[in-house]
Every structure is written in C-alpha cells, then in structure tokens.
C-alpha cells in the first residue's frame, strides 16, 4: 500500500466549478451521471486524474462528445485522462454502482432498505469518478430518481427546487446547494421515512425548518434530538455569533453507520444510537451523548463546512475545534466541572495510551496509508485540548476575537492549521513561538513540578521540568508552551490572592480580566527547566496545580498525601478537587499492586476510606460530581502507569479496594441508595440525573460485596426501575457476580427488550465487558446469537469492542482473547475494513505486557498481516503495531 505524506501536498490541477449529479436508484444497479464544469488551475495541460473505486464506467464525454479510448485509462483506483481541451470544459461521466452490495458503509449504501451515503473521508470516489479531496470545492445540484412506493422520501444537500412523478411508479426530486463545498460533504438519502418537524428563528429573524427523519416506528424517540438541535443553534449564536445559513436543516438517523454522525451540508446523517432516545430505552449517558453529538455536527456548519480543511492532514483543524465547541456547549447545558472530568477521563484512558504506543502520531499527522485510520482520539481529543489551550492562554474574549478573525479571513476556503493559529495570534497580537509544536510533536509531555516556600522572603517557588517523550519516527523533541494554571490555598482552604510572579528575571503582575487580583495564575512553561516565584505569599500554601487540566500532560509533583486530602476537601477548582481524589486512588492502588506482586497481605488505609466517606456524606456537593469522585480510576488507567502492565494484579487490587470501601461504608452506601431513589417518573433535569448517578455508583459498590442483603437491594432496584439508566445500572451491579441470578437477570432483560436493537447493544456490551473469569467463550457464543449481526457496526462495537475493554479476559494468559479478536478481525475485514481496523487497534499496546502475553499477541498480529487480500486499513494498524 502507498503511504501519503503531508510534505508532498500539491494544489489540484483543476477546479470543479459546478457539479450536476443525477442518481437513478435501482434494486440491482444504480446509475450515477455527473456533469462537471472543469477549469484548469494552471496552464500546463496536465492530465486530469480522477479518483474512483469499485465503479463501472459506462460513458465518458467532454463537451458532449465521447472521449476516445486513446485518451483515457481506467485502473482500480483512478480514471486518468489526457489530450484535454485547452481552457475550461464540461465533463460528463456515467457510472454504475451496486449500493445494495456495499457492506463497507462508505459511498452510497443501503441500511435497512433505505439508501444513504457516507463520503468522508474518501467515500465519494465510490459513488463516481472525482477529484476526491477537500480543497476541490464546488456548487452541487442533485437529481434523484427512484421508486415512489419504496422510497417516498428523496433528500440531498441544500434546497428542494423541483419534484414530481415519473412513469412506472417512479418519482424524482432536485436539490440545489447554494454553498460551495468539497465532495466529502455531499449526501443523499432515499427511503421510507417520517420526520419530526420544528423550526428555529435565527438571530437575524430567518425561520429555518428543522426535520429529523427516522423510520416510522422511531418517530416518538426524536424529541430529545430536536430539543438538542435548537439549543445548539441558539448557543452558537450566543457564544460565537454564528448563524445557520440555509432555510432547511435535515437530520436522518440510520442504524448501520461506521461512526457517530456526519456533518453533510444541511443533511446530517446520524447513527441511530445518537438520535433515538426515550427514558425507557436510553440512559442518561445516551441523552448527554445525543445532545453533544447533535451540537458537534451542527457546529461543523461553520467549523468544517464554511471553512474546511485543505487536505486530510489538517483534520484536527475542524475536528479538534468542533470537539472543543461541543465540549463547551455541553458544559453550558449541564455541569461544567462534571463535563471537564468526563472529558479528561476519556483523554487519559484513550488518548494517552495511543500517544504512548506504536500508533502515536501528532495532532496533525505527517503521513497515512488510509485516512480513515486517522480519525483518532489524538486528532479529535488531543486536538480539542490544543484549542482549549489557546483559550486558556488568550482568555475567553481573546479566543472569540481569534475565531472572528478566522471566519473573516477564511470563509469559503480550505485551509491549514497554520491559518487557524495565525488568526488566533494576530487577533491578540501575540506570538508564542513554541506553541505550533503541539501540532507537530506526538507524545504526552511529562511535567514535573517541585515546590518550595521561603517564609522569610514570603515567596513560593515552583520549579518545572518538561519532557516530551520519543515516539515512533520522532526521537528528539523540543519543549512546547504548556499553560500551567496554578492556585494557592491558605490554611483555611481559601484561595490566596496572587499579585505577582517572577518568571526568571521578569516580574509579571497578575490581574483577572476585570483588572482585580487573581486566584488562578496561568504560568507559561516553555522551557525544559523553568522556575516561577510567587511574591507576597504570607503563609506556606497548598498548591493546586494544573487547574481545570490546563494542558494535556502527565503531571508529577511533590504534593504530599496530606495536601491531596486537603485539596479534596477544599479546592475551589472543582476539577482539581476531583483530581486530588484520583491521585490518591492511583497512588494507593499502585502501592497495593506492588505489595500484591511481592506476595504481601494488602490493606486500605483508613485516611482513604475517610476521604471517600466525606465525599459521600457532603450534602453540599453536586451529586453528579460526588459520583465522579467516588469512581476509582479504571483498570486500564492504572495498568498504563506500570512498567509492565499486569492486568490480573490490577484487577485483584481494584476489586479489593472497591470491596474494602463497600464493607467500611456499607450503611452509608445503603442510605445513599435509599435517599436518592426517585419516587417520580423519569426526570431528565440535572438534579435528577445527578441523583441517579450517585445512587447507581453506591449500588455498584454494594453489589460488589455479594451479600444476600446488598444483592437484594440491587434486585429490588432492577425491579422498580422506571427508566433505562436505573435498570441497566442495577443489571450491571447484579452481573458483577457470576451465578444463577446473573443468568436469570440477563435472560429477563433480553425477553423484555429483544425487539429494541439499541437496547440489545447494551445487553451485548454488558456481557462482553464483564470481568467474570473465562468470558471469552461466552462472547464467542454471542457471535451466533440473534441479537448480534457482524454487518452492523454498533453491534461489533458493543460485543467485540466491549470485550477488548475487559483487560483480564482480552489479555487472558492463555491467549484465547487474542485468538478470538484475530478471528473476528479477519472475518470482518472482508465486510467492513473501517470497522475491522478499529477492532485491530486493541492489539496495539501488546508490548506493554509480560513476555508470554507479548508472544501470544504478536503471533496473532502476524497471523493477520500475513493474510492474503487484507485491507489497507487493517494492514496499516497491524503492521505499525508490529513495527
Ligand atoms: N466528520 C465525521 C467523520 C466521519 C467519518 C470518518 C471516517 C469514516 C466514517 C465517518 N463517519 C463520519 C464525524 C465527525 O467528527 O463529525
Ligand atoms: Zn466532527
């Protein structure tokens, strides 16, 4: 396979000014005609090279005349044309495709009988021959012809300009998109669908029709998605001054979709799981995810669509920025602290391992084989952290100025990350020379902080050392600008006033945005070693470092356990209050793991239990926040901190700590369940979501004891549950313990929900993620269960993806988990390489384990790479994992 490099970027030889598409949709074949106005960008008569895969070329005309066979060549991936007219010309291409046989779910395909498209990143080339790259921007018109009974609804981008009946029971619709766009934003849907209709009046008074389309039986589950859409439209106007730019906004939900959703211009297509919700079938987590992703795709209308990427290496330009925007939206809709905690947990448990493994790549990658493999947590989530750092460095108002200048300069263009950075810096008249390195250097920096207090001088000094670790292909790294947000707590737990800080020889006065003193200073750490001294510090403070997780680093500091308990009790920065508890938990578990590995008896110290109890009993806390504080770091996060990951020891110790906490706080936990049980019907408000979160964390602890009384509590919660959040949490609690009750409860849940595909995914995931011993065989059996279907990505993510998160089973000592995954990857690769390559990624950390496991995992990776006909997608991940 061919590797593509950022350094080789070349502007396209031809512009496509206007594209008229005609789709004649059929059951056996679909005909696609494209009429393109082609304009040369240079005068050198270069060949016109169009991308195209799995297409059957029917006719090819230039200016209405058939092109001679001597003047074009068709290969498996390209249509190569020479001897072209000088100047502009009209190109007509007719191809035949078979959407009904498309299991890859990219290009034009069928999902439960309806036609739909997915063109990002390089799917348009599976619809017709085209310069399939984001810097070719055109105006599109789309005519769709189809059977009227089977496909009564015909949708594409822009405005409906014509529709009518055709002979033989067919009909047509013509859609015109007034905005220029790259072909990856093209969309078409044809099917038997109904819409929930609503409207939104924009800040300039334009009425926009909003429609959410689903199969008829799902209509009742789209109210939350519609509400979320209207909130997102309002939020973008209020926070960024960005208004929607057409009179119609369509969303379609499809059950078979490789990712979460797609921001096609005015015709977003969503995975059903991110649209459909009812209290009985969706959890609070689902509700929040729907709100976030609806916001995300809507926000792309400006960050992605109006201003798009020059090439796919710039993906984070739109994705990092849009994730940041959706995070801020969700923070404003719910609890800011809880949202930040959830986002940091995701970053640390998913992105940090990627940054420390063989697939480590910068936020802007330097090369790829398959672009689909670079829709990663690094590009999305580390990318969002980079955008957040601009805001931390420039302040909210400064960040907004930068955004305004970005749109002023680049509306309608396809640009690079440099252009975003230049808009941010120019708007604020700053230059941070080491900041651009965040786009180019992979690896999570380690920031080591040593503090000291000088009582005579009344100064508090913070010594920083940053190391950006080597990653594949990048052995040497430079220090980068890390914004380090710091607060200092006095002995009462109050924030001290911070008036000035010395950075080397220069003294900076510290003020807040309104000119007053500040309680959080943002230090600019941009050297390998650097010292900052706070002046006028009248007593020895407890430092609160990296407030609100101001930079995506691994922080190592000399803050003592005593200080951490103090921060857990008092820090005004809610994120750091939670983080203090997490740091204590991580330290405790790592110590216990070492003791366990040495064969010593282990115990949990009483200060830790006391700390947890104080959170559980603090009625002044937001209950969702308390629930997060009570949740111990995941096994993966702990294993990631070990020199050699030992999944068995981590599992034993984490479970031991959970049981110890449960045993010591049994009565408090029982009370928590009782007090937070809801007596009313489902209420989606934050207050009630928070009550459910706290109650269900407590329930999980109690069930871990596996005592008749605590199990009865879980069974009772399961029986009385009036919504999926509570029902699933209770089932999860019960299923921690193998045995008859577990099997009976799973069977009961299945009987109740077997007709609801999205609920069945939860049922599959719960079993797949289970820590019960020897679960590989159960999961293998579930492959043949009617609730599973390997062609549906959601089911694969639930069962196979879920299984790989259970460290003790996926990394089973006998290698059975590795063999299972390889078997599935090889089967799946033939049907859907994008999803297969997401699954094979679970192997990528194999070098973190002991020698026996390494040998077993390596053998399976080699088995995969030696397979004939392997997709480029899986080859890239598997071979890079082995390198
Ligand atoms: N921009 C969208 C990306 C996407 C995608 C990429 C590769 C293969 C399938 C895909 N489906 C959607 C989603 C987003 O980030 O908004
Ligand atoms: Zn996106």
TrEMBL record:
Residues 78-185 form the Aminopeptidase N-like N-terminal domain. One of its GO terms (molecular function) is metallopeptidase activity. Residues 225-429 form the Peptidase M1 membrane alanine aminopeptidase domain. One of its GO terms (biological process) is proteolysis. It is an enzyme of class 3 (hydrolase). Residues 562-883 form the Peptidase M1 alanyl aminopeptidase C-terminal domain. SUPFAM superfamilies: Leukotriene A4 hydrolase N-terminal domain, Metalloproteases ('zincins'), catalytic domain. Its cofactor is Zn(2+). Pfam families: DUF3458, DUF3458_C, Peptidase_M1, Peptidase_M1_N. Residues 443-556 form the Peptidase M1 alanyl aminopeptidase Ig-like fold domain. Its EC number is 3.4.11.14. It catalyses: Release of an N-terminal amino acid, preferentially alanine, from a wide range of peptides, amides and arylamides. InterPro entries: Aminopeptidase_N-like_N, Aminopeptidase_N-like_N_sf, PepN_Ig-like_sf, Peptidase_M1, Peptidase_M1_dom, Peptidase_M1_pepN, Peptidase_M1_pepN_C, Peptidase_M1_pepN_C_sf. Keywords: Aminopeptidase, Hydrolase, Metal-binding, Metalloprotease, Protease, Zinc. Belongs to the peptidase M1 family. This is Puromycin-sensitive aminopeptidase. It comes from Physcomitrium patens (Spreading-leaved earth moss). The gene is LOC112292526.
């Amino acid at each position: 396979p061919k590797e593509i490099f950022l350094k080789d970027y070349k502007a396209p030889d031809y512009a496509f000014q206007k594209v008229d598409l005609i789709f004649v949709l059929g059951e056996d074949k679909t005909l696609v005609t494209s009429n393109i106005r082609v304009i040369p960008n240079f005068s050198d008569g270069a060949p016109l090279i169009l991308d195209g895969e799995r297409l059957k070329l029917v006719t090819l005309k230039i200016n209405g005349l058939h092109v001679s066979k001597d003047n074009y060549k068709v290969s498996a991936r390209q249509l190569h044309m020479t001897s072209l007219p000088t100047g502009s010309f009209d190109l007509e291409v007719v191809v035949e495709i078979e959407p009904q046989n498309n299991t890859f779910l990219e290009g034009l395909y069928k999902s439960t009988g309806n036609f739909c498209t997915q063109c990002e990143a390089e799917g348009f080339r599976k619809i017709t021959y085209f310069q399939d790259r984001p810097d070719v921007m055109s105006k599109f018109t789309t005519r769709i012809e189809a059977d009227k009974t089977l496909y009564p609804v015909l949708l594409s981008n822009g405005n409906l300009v014509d529709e009518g009946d055709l002979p033989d029971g067919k009909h047509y619709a013509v859609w015109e998109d007034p905005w220029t766009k790259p072909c990856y934003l093209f969309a078409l849907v044809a099917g038997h669908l109904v819409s929930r209709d609503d409207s939104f009046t924009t800040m300039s008074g334009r009425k926009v029709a909003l429609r959410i389309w689903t199969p008829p039986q799902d209509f009742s589950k789209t109210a939350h998605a519609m509400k979320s859409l209207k909130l997102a439209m309002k939020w973008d106007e209020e926070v960024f001054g960005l208004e929607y730019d057409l009179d119609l906004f369509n969303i379609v939900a499809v059950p078979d979709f490789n990712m979460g959703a797609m921001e096609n211009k005015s015709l977003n297509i969503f995975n059903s799981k991110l649209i459909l919700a009812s209290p009985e079938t969706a959890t609070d987590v689902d509700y929040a995810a729907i709100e976030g992703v609806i916001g995300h795709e809507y926000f792309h209308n400006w960050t992605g669509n109006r201003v798009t990427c020059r090439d796919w290496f710039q993906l984070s330009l739109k994705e990092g920025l849009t994730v940041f925007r959706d995070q801020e939206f969700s923070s404003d809709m719910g609890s800011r602290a809880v949202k930040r905690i959830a986002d940091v947990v995701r970053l640390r448990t998913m992105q940090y391992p990627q940054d420390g493994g063989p697939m480590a790549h910068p936020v802007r990658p330097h090369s790829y084989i398959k672009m689909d493999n670079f829709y990663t947590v690094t590009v999305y989530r580390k990318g969002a952290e980079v955008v957040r750092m601009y805001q931390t460095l420039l302040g909210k108002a400064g960040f907004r100025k930068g955004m305004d200048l970005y749109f002023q300069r680049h509306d309608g263009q396809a640009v690079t990350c440099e252009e975003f950075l230049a808009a941010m810096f120019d708007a604020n008249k700053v230059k941070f020379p080491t900041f651009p390195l965040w786009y180019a250097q992979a690896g999570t920096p380690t920031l080591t902080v040593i503090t000291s207090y000088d009582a005579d001088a009344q100064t508090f000094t913070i010594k920083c050392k940053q190391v950006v670790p080597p990653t594949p292909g990048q052995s040497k790294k430079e220090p980068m600008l890390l914004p380090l947000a710091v607060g200092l707590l006095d002995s009462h737990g109050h924030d001290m006033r911070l008036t000035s800080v010395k950075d080397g020889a220069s003294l900076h006065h510290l003020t807040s945005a309104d000119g007053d003193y500040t309680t959080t200073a943002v230090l600019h750490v941009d050297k390998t070693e650097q010292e900052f001294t706070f002046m006028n510090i009248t007593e020895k403070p407890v430092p609160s470092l990296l407030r609100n997780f101001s930079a995506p680093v691994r922080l190592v500091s000399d803050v003592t356990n005593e200080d951490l308990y103090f921060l857990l009790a008092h820090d005004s920065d809610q994120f750091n209050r939670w983080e203090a508890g997490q740091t204590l938990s991580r330290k405790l578990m790592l110590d216990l793991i070492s003791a366990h590995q040495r064969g010593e008896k282990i115990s949990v110290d009483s200060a830790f239990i006391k700390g947890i109890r104080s959170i559980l009993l603090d009625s002044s806390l937001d209950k969702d926040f308390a629930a997060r504080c009570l949740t111990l770091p995941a096994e993966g996060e702990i294993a990631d901190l070990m020199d050699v990951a030992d999944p068995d020891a981590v599992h034993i110790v984490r479970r031991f700590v959970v049981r110890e906490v449960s045993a010591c706080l049994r009565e408090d936990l029982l009370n928590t369940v009782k007090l937070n049980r809801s007596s009313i019907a489902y209420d989606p408000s934050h207050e009630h979501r928070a009550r459910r979160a706290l109650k269900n964390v407590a329930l999980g602890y109690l069930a871990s004891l596996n005592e008749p009384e605590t199990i009865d509590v879980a069974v009772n919660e399961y029986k009385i549950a009036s919504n999926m959040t509570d029902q699933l949490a209770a089932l999860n609690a019960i299923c921690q313990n193998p045995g008859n009750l577990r099997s009976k409860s799973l069977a009961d849940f299945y009987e109740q929900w077997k007709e609801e595909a999205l609920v069945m995914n939860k049922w599959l995931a719960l079993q797949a993620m289970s820590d019960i011993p020897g679960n590989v065989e159960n999961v293998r059996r579930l492959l043949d269960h009617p609730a599973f279907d390997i062609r549906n990505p959601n089911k694969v993510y639930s069962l196979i993806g879920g299984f790989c998160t259970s460290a003790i089973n996926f990394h089973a000592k006998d290698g059975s988990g590795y063999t299972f995954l390889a078997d599935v990857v090889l089967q799946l690769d033939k049907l859907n390489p994008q999803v297969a390559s997401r699954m094979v990624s679970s192997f990528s950390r194999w070098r973190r384990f002991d020698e026996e496991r390494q040998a077993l995992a390596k053998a399976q990776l080699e088995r995969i790479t030696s397979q004939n006909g392997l997709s480029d997608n899986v080859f890239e991940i598997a071979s890079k994992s082995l390198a």
